[in-house]
Design brief:
alpha+beta, Endonuclease III, domain 1, 2 domains, 5 helices, 7 strands, rod-shaped
Length: 183
């Protein structure tokens, strides 16, 4: 029978422990404290217990976040700098050991009201889509300028409609007394 805990019955090629429940965290801590030996156990050798906390034995000695601390820690990291999901997750992994926490980071960043209001999400610029006319006088650009001051006498024109042919760049301008969009 296979165990539901990530440190039991794991093939040797697996390097990372999946994130565990509070009960699983406490059991892992006890196994590390008691140095319970399991044949071919490479996972337990990666951890130690200091001040009643699990520490991942890598170069930076990162703290393995307790499941109860996970959400609050990610929340605090994000709300210090309001960075995107990838940057928040990278900061979390640089300072803590929290495998499998990316979905929680993504959820917190997506629900951040400040980020939603100020649109901190980095967007890639899209290439321009030029309009390339195939022949003269087939594609036109139109615009209405006005109201202009002073109004012309005696016609009373106060708007100008402008058109430019995209192929030849031929400009055309006509005076108007009133604008259609004011009616």
């Amino acid at each position: 029978m296979s165990s539901r805990f990530p440190w039991e019955d794991i093939p040797e090629q697996v390097e990372e422990v999946l994130y565990i429940s509070t009960k699983g965290y406490e059991e892992l801590k006890e196994r590390i404290k008691n140095k319970t030996n399991i044949p071919n156990d490479k996972i337990l050798s990666k951890f130690s217990v200091q001040d009643n906390k699990i520490i991942h034995n890598d170069k930076s000695q990162r703290k393995y976040l307790h499941p109860k601390e996970l959400y609050e820690t990610i929340y605090n990291i994000h709300y210090e700098q309001h960075r995107d999901t990838t940057a928040t997750y990278k900061y979390l992994n640089d300072h803590y050991y929290a495998p499998g926490s990316y979905p929680v980071v993504k959820l917190i960043v997506e629900r951040c009201e400040v980020c939603q209001r100020t649109n901190y999400i980095q967007r890639k610029a899209e290439n321009l889509h030029p309009i390339i006319p195939s022949e003269p006088f087939k594609v036109w650009g139109l615009d209405v300028a006005g109201p202009i001051s002073p109004i012309t006498e005696p016609e009373g024109n106060k708007y100008i409609i402008m058109a430019v042919d995209y192929f030849t760049k031929w400009p055309v301008a006509l005076p108007l007394q009133i604008s259609e969009y004011q009616k």
